[in-house]
Amino acid sequence: MNLDDLFVYSQHAAPQHLISRLAGKVAECEIPRVKNKIISWFIQKYGVNMAEAALQSPEDFRHFNDFFTRALKEDARPLDKTKKGIISPVDGAVSQLGDISHGQIFQAKGQSFSVVELLGGDVERAEPFIGGKFATIYLSPKDYHRIHMPCKGTLREMVYIPGKLFSVNPATAQNVPRLFARNERVAAIFDTEFGPMAMVLVGAMIVASIETVWSGLVAPLKRQVKTTQYGGSVKDLQLKKGDEMGRFKLGSTVVLAFPPNATEFIESLKAESPVQMGQAFGKILV
Q: What pTM does this model have?
C-alpha cells in the first residue's frame, strides 16, 4: 500500500463530519493568542501571499475563518474584458475540463461521474447540460477562497446535496470513484444569455461550511436534498461577471457545467493549469 492509498483509506475510516465540525469550531475561535498562532502557522506552512490581501496581519482577523475568506486589494484580480468572455471564478488549478460525454464528467484516469448525480439526482435539472462542457477547479489551502461569477447570470435554483466529506486534492480525485458527486455540495443554477449554467460548490474534509451571498451559510437542519427556487425578477439575484457569489471556509472545488454549443474554453487551459479569478477562461459562442 503506497502513501496515496493509505491517505484515501484513512478518509474512508475517519468520522468525516465529526472531524469537520471540530475543525469548524477551532476555525471560529476568537481568542487572540490562539487564532493568531494558527493563522501565522498556516501562512508559513502553505506560503500564503499576504501582500495581495486587504488585511495582512493575523491580528487584523477576527478568527481563522475570517482570515481564510479574506478579501483582496481592489486591484489584485483585474477582470478580463474580452467581449463575450468567461472568466475563471476562483483562484486554483484546473483539475479537468472538457466535454460532458454521454452525461458523464471526467474526474481522473479511470474515474468519471454523472452530471445527473452531481446535480442532486434530478434528470430534468441535468438534461440541459448533457453534451455540453464542464470545468473542475481545485482550490488549494493557500488560495483566495471567495467564488465569483464567470459571466452575468440570474439565479434560478439552489440545491443543497448532502454527502461525504472526502478531501478533494489530486490524490483523492484519482482514487475515490465519483468523488465530486459523493461529497456534500451546493449546486447553483443560473440563467444566462447562452442558457443555463451550473456552479457546484463541493465541500471537503474539514471544510467548515459553504456560504452564498444570497443565503449566507448553507446548513439545512436535515441532511437531505433541499431545493430552493428563485424568481428571475429579483434584482439582487442578478449577478454581474466578477461579482462574488459564495465562499469556502477551508479549501475545496468548483465544478462548472455549460449547455451544448454555447461556450468553449481557451486553448491553453488543460489539467493542472493554474488559474486566478478574473483571468480569461473561455468565451460565449451564441
A: 0.89
